[in-house]
Design a protein that fits this description.
The complex is a heterodimer of chains A (112) and B (115). By secondary structure, chain A is mainly β. Chain A has no helices and eleven strands. Helices cover 0% and strands 51% of the residues of chain B. In chain B, strand 4 and strand 5 form a beta hairpin. The chains are: A mainly beta (112), B mainly beta (115).
Chain lengths: 112, 115
């Protein structure tokens, strides 16, 4: 049982480059979300989705896009990377919004 | 006031000690409460859900006081392997202030158990 799978685990980007962080879950969870974790800041919600075709913004959405074409996948796109986006990114999923969340292993992104 | 507040620690305790973490939350409409554990450079993992009646899982006991908007985690007989950061997590009510029931994380309390 793979759970929540994120790729890549590490990435270095140059300022202005774009990229997509992949997230897939095999638990048939409706709710998926993306967080970033910075030292001293805790986890902050970027975007979330309550089901295929439905996405919404979280606390820190600027500079990021998401889409949810299938129940399983929820990619996060960085449109034009900036050094302020250097962070650890976690994807999470849960059966519903009321149940506990399961996290992927994280992507460590550095923007230079 | 921050939505979920925790003492960042670190708590440095010897093996076998009992240690307690506290957490307060600001949204009285919050509906679900959890403790997550996060090891260094790893993803958060659910430790336990927190119920109004209090609940226990082995050496871990969680308590919720809705009137005071306060959550606690008690760890008895601490092990070296308990060293980690413990995250207090609250799920706001659906459709409350636009939160759509999303998880709100505290910044975590760091525990270090020494031999």
């Amino acid at each position: 049982n793979a759970g929540v799978t994120q790729t890549p685990k590490f990435q270095v980007l140059k300022t202005g480059q774009s990229m997509t962080l992949q997230c897939a879950q095999d638990m048939n969870h409706e709710y998926m979300s993306w967080y970033r974790q910075d030292p001293g800041m805790g986890l902050r919600l970027i975007h979330y989705s309550v089901g295929a075709g439905i996405t919404d913004q979280g606390e820190v959405p600027n500079g990021y896009n998401v889409s949810r074409s299938t129940t399983e996948d929820f990619p996060l796109r960085l449109l034009s990377a900036a050094p302020s986006q250097t962070s650890v990114y976690f994807c999470a999923s849960s059966y519903t919004q009321r149940t506990e969340a399961f996290f992927g292993q994280g992507t460590r992104l550095t923007v230079v | 006031r921050k939505e979920v507040e925790q003492d960042p620690g670190p708590f440095n305790v010897p093996e076998g000690a009992t240690v307690a973490f506290n957490c307060t939350y600001s949204n009285s409409a919050s509906q679900s409460f959890f403790w997550y554990r996060q090891d260094c450079r790893k993803e958060p993992k659910l430790l336990m859900s927190v119920y109004s009646s209090g609940n226990e899982d082995g050496r871990f006991t969680a308590q919720l006081n809705r009137a005071s908007q306060y959550i606690s985690l008690l760890i008895r007989d601490s092990k070296l392997s308990d060293s980690a950061t413990y995250l207090c997590v609250v799920r706001a009510a659906m459709n409350y202030g636009g939160s759509q029931g999303n998880l709100i994380f505290g910044k975590g309390t760091k525990l270090s158990v020494k031999p």
